């Protein structure tokens, strides 16, 4: 199984990131007989999580095990290559410059297409001991982990415009919920109170626990509010600064803007998975996007593109009289 590209070889596609979106896209592209180089810095944001949930056939699998198996399955095909590296830049002509990591080589490659599947970086609230419990007692993904928290006394930490909506959703699984946030409006506080959700406005300074078991949330006054676990609302930062030379469109939060088929505003440049910040941010969703973008890339390289509204371009065998024929 090749783990790095042959010297001088230029892949059809470079995939940046080896999470569920990148690995699924890579697998589908090598099965389409495309040569693919996958570049991965191996810094997944789900690394602290012990188990991932909600993916058919894989419920409960450790995320790092999923990455390992996915990489092995991708590399089992001719045309597949993987390298450990950090992408420094993607040029306007799609030239990809890579600094090798963990023994991987420095590379400059010239693919026909580039897929960005780097996901997000999570910036957690500055709370003492929070990271010690993150991925076990505390989580960020409600869809992924709320079921396991059913009936527990939970905390919701962080801030953001969607904090109240997240609280109302979490309370479906665990009605004993307290939101720890000092900057909610009076209207938001009333919404929480009407739903039976508690609110603590005093600043949080630490997470308390015994023998790796979370027991409470310590406030600035020293008071400890007993809690068994909960959820954190991090700030999410897209990993896409290496696209600066391409002028690819990004939204106000830095997320890569794509069409229905995961094309960016730059021909030959695609993005899928959490770097586009679609909801929910689950493995199954990212993997599905990887499958869709793989087909888009393959057909674009054939010169038989999929239209931006999701239909096959006119003139293809599957597009007759203006109607899509599946």
TrEMBL record:
Pfam families: Pyr_redox_2 (PF07992). Keywords: Flavoprotein, Oxidoreductase. It catalyses: [thioredoxin]-dithiol + NADP(+) = [thioredoxin]-disulfide + NADPH + H(+). Residues 12-290 form the FAD/NAD(P)-binding domain. The keyword S-adenosyl-L-methionine does not apply. PANTHER family: THIOREDOXIN REDUCTASE 1-RELATED-RELATED (PTHR48105). This is NAD(P)/FAD-dependent oxidoreductase.
């Amino acid at each position: 199984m090749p783990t790095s590209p042959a010297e001088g070889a230029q892949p059809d596609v470079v995939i940046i990131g080896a999470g569920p979106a990148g690995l699924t896209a890579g697998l589908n592209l090598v099965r389409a007989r495309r040569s693919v180089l996958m570049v991965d810095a191996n810094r997944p944001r789900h690394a602290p999580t012990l188990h991932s949930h909600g993916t058919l056939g894989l419920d409960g699998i450790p995320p790092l095990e999923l990455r390992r198996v996915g990489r092995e399955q991708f590399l089992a095909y001719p045309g597949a290559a993987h390298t450990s590296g950090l992408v420094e830049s993607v040029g306007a002509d799609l030239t990809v410059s890579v600094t090798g990591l963990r023994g991987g080589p420095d590379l400059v490659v010239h693919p026909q297409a580039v897929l960005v599947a780097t996901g997000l970086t999570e910036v957690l609230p500055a709370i003492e001991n929070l990271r010690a419990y993150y991925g076990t007692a505390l989580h960020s993904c409600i869809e992924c982990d709320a079921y396991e928290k059913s009936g527990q006394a939970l905390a919701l930490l962080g801030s953001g415009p969607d904090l109240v909506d997240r609280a109302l959703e979490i309370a479906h699984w665990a009605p004993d919920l307290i939101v720890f946030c000092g900057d909610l409006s009076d209207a938001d506080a009333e919404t929480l109170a009407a739903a039976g959700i508690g609110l603590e406005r005093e600043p949080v300074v630490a997470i308390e626990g015994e023998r790796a078991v979370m027991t409470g949330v310590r406030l600035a006054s020293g008071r400890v509010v007993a809690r068994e676990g909960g959820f954190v609302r991090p700030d999410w930062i897209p990993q896409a600064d290496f696209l600066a030379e391409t002028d690819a469109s990004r939204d106000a939060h830095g997320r890569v803007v794509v069409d229905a088929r995961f094309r960016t505003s730059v021909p030959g440049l695609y993005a899928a998975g959490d770097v586009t910040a679609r909801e929910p941010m689950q493995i199954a969703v990212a993997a599905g996007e990887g499958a869709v973008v793989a087909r888009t890339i393959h057909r674009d390289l054939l010169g038989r593109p999929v239209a931006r509204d999701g239909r096959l371009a006119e003139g293809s065998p599957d597009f007759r009289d203006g109607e899509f024929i599946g």
